Amino acid sequence: MKNLQSTTTLHNGVRMPWFGLGVFKVEEGAELEIAVATAIQNGYRSMDTAAIYGNEAGVGRGIEQGLRQAGIDRSELFVTSKVWNADLGYESTLAAYETSLSKLGLEYLDLYLIHWPVEGRFVEAWRALEHLYEQGRVKAIGVSNFQPHHIETLMQAANIKPMVNQVEYHPRLAQLELRNYCVQQGIQLEAWSPLMQGQLLDNPLLLQLAAKYDKSVAQIILRWDLQTGVVTIPKSTNEARIMANAAIFDFELSEADMELIAGMNENVRVGPDPDHFDF
C-alpha cells in the first residue's frame, strides 16, 4: 500500500484499488460529476455506485470528464455498481446490469455486487452474476452486506465464490468474525460508511491519535481500514476532503494504536442489520 493506486489482488487475479470514492446519497448534477472527475484527476482509480443511489448517469459523466482531463484510459479505472433488491432474480438481474451499464455509459463493470441478501432471491441473482462473469461482461463479482451464513447459503448453489463482500465497517463495528471468515475464504472485505457517517470525528481517542500522527481523525480511521486489510471507499464531494481522505499512504499506525482503535468496537450500526431489514 504505497500510494493511491495500490491494489489488492482478488482471488480471480483481478487487481482492485485499496482506496476509492463512494457516492452514496449524492444526487445527480454538477456537484457529483465534478467530484468524480476531481477524484480521478487527483489519482483515485476506484469509483463505487449502485442502482438504488439513482446517480449512475452522473457518475458516468464524471468518469468521462475525469478520464479526459487526466489523460488516462478507462482500463485504469475500477468501477463498481450493485443490483438492487427489487431486481434480484435471474432475468431481472441481467436486465438491471444492462441498465446500469447504459446509465454509466460503459462497456463493462469491474465489479458487480448483490446489494443486500434478500432471502430466497439472492441465489438466482448470483446465477446471473456468474453468467455475466463467464461471458466476460464484468471483471469480478461479489456481494454486499452478506454475513457468513448468507455466503454459505449462496455457496451451496454457486459455481463461483464471491470475490468481494462490501459491508458496513468502522471502529464501532469491526465485524471481526466476518472479517476472519472472509480472510479464510479468500473474499476481499470492503468498507462502506467507514467514517460512521461522521459520528466518529469527535471521538476523544481518535482525536488523540490524530494529534499524535499529525493527521485528521478521518485519516486515522481510513488508515486503520487499510491496515486491517479492508478496502475503503469514503464519500465526499468536497475537493479538499477528497484529497485529504486519500493522504493516508505516508504513515503507518503502530500495532498498539491499531489495538486501541479495535477496542472501540461495540457492534453498533448506522445502517440496517443484514439479518433484519425491510426494503
From TrEMBL:
Residues binding substrate, per UniProt: 115
GO MF annotations for this entry?
Answer: oxidoreductase activity
Domain called NADP-dependent oxidoreductase: residue spans? 34-265
Write down the superkingdom of origin.
Bacteria
Check the record and name the InterPro entries matching this protein.
AKR, AKR5G, Aldo/ket_reductase_CS, NAD(P)_OxRdtase_dom_sf, NADP_OxRdtase_dom
Keywords on this record? Oxidoreductase
Q: Has the keyword Oxidoreductase been applied to this entry?
A: yes
**Catalytic site residues?**
53
Record-marked site positions (Lowers pKa of active site Tyr): 82
Annotated signal sequence range: none
Pfam families attached here?
Aldo_ket_red
Family per similarity comment: Belongs to the aldo/keto reductase family.
Q: Can you say what this protein is called?
A: Diketogulonate reductase-like aldo/keto reductase
Species in which this protein is naturally found: Paenibacillus endophyticus
